[in-house]
Specification:
Layout lengths: L2 H21 L4 H22 L7
Helix pairs in contact: 1-2
Length: about 55
């Protein structure tokens, strides 16, 4: 699997997890799920702007 495809998958899964955590807010579990999802989204967005090194 190419790196860019994996980044998109992590971004989408992170958004789904963050959305699920948003609806579970009301306790520490929901806040943890929301934070985990947001962290995945932020890290995948940072991966988009990271320069890539190409081996020849």
């Amino acid at each position: 699997m190419e790196g860019m495809n994996l980044t998109w998958i992590v971004l989408i899964v992170g958004a789904v997890v963050a959305l699920a955590g948003w609806f579970l807010v009301g306790g520490l579990f929901g806040a943890g799920v929301l934070g985990f999802g947001l962290a995945a989204v932020i890290l995948s967005l940072l991966d988009f702007i990271r320069p890539t090194l190409k081996r020849s």
